[in-house]
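Hallway conversation turned thread

IA: we were arguing at lunch whether anyone had actually written out 3-oxoacid CoA-transferase subunit B end to end. Turns out nobody had. So, for the record, here is the sequence (223 residues) and right after it the structure tokens. Reply here if something looks off.
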Amino acid sequence: MTTKLTSTQIAWRAAQDIADGAYVNLGIGFPEMVAKFQPPGRQAVFHTENGILGFGEAPAPGEEDWDLINAGKKAVTIKPGTAFFHHADSFAMVRGGHLDVAILGAYEVAETGDLANWSTGPKGVPAVGGAMDLVHGAKRVAVITEHVTKDGKPKLVQKCALPLTGVGCVTRVYTSLAVVDVRDGRFVLIEKLPSMSFDELQSLTGATLHLDGDVADLIVPEL
């Protein structure tokens, strides 16, 4: 199979589309990596559901203050202008439409923009958590993910088989092979690895990939 992007490279590519000054929530785990790759001259304002806005980078090992954590229980730092508030106020920000971008992981994304990212079935995580608020409160919802599962099954599908986090919420997907937009109930291919043919990419995708103009090469630095 064609060489794919690493998780770090996927996170880098997603970071390039975050505007300067945007209010951004990053999902727990893999999406948190996006914060490391803000382009020069741009500074996002990061939000976490447990009540911090505008926090800084992760502290150096051994310098953590465990009173300062994000929603994923990871240590963060504060900087001038960082704000603290009750988690109810944090969710009011989300539900009130005050976040510009939410970036989350996914088990499945449907061509209609439906997202399944919290449970793989009866033995999965017991609750959807704040993700269901984020996907319908943020102005733009992006997903970062491998293009296929560990056993080679497509993660971009016609219809999600797993429990949904949100309906019709995803607008762009950054995968290990491509950048795909969700438009009018269709997957539209924006970028793909230059070493991969369209037909090869389509064979690894569980729904039809549509074209709207030229497809750019997905070029990412070695990280």
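OS: looked through it. The helical segments are 7-15, 87-95, 131-137, 198-203.
IA: good, adding that to the notes. Residues 135 and 144 are 14 Å apart (CA to CA).
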